[in-house]
Amino acid sequence: MSFTQIVASNCDLVLASGSPRRHDILDQIGVFHHIVIPHIDESQRRAESATSYVCRLALEKASAGCLMQNLDVPVLGADTILVSEDSVFGKPTDYSNFKDMFTALSGKTHRVLSAVAVNNRVESSVLVSETLVTFRSIIEGEMMKYWDSGEPKDKAGGYAIQGYGSVFVEHIKGSYSGVVGLPIAETCRLLTEFNVPIWQSPIAE
Which of 24, 34, 51, 111 fits 83 for a cystine, CB–CB 3.0-4.6 Å? Predict the structure, then answer.
């Protein structure tokens, strides 16, 4: 396990993630946070269910974040996966892998599981949201053009609903922010449980 650390100050929470989307969501709900980036083994274990898998990764990221700094504040970890017909889709490794994913998703409904965990070095807790996303039919030329945009390469399931990937989405039932990468309702519940302030105004420079 290796670590990358980004230093910040005046925080109430450590975000154990390098995702700019999760950073933006915490800013959106007014949480002053510091960022560390843990690098853990994200492989799914044999016979591990999709829900157990995503929750374990969120908990492991929060735990790893606790080891990376000495701030006396809780640590938040999160993970998002996509499930289609019992197959778990992570980040595509190359265009061929991405094309296989999008071919499976085209014209169908899939599940997005997004887990958020908080660890304060004494105890930890995790919640998970499930969202149903329906894609319209997608032709191969669109897949290639989208891959060439660069957006799919670090996204679970190969798409960003908040970006160009939105053009493929026909219907969504559940948490939009969960599909982006950090479910706001579940995050706020955990932050309240761990006494982390939310709804704060930005610090004036």
Answer: 111
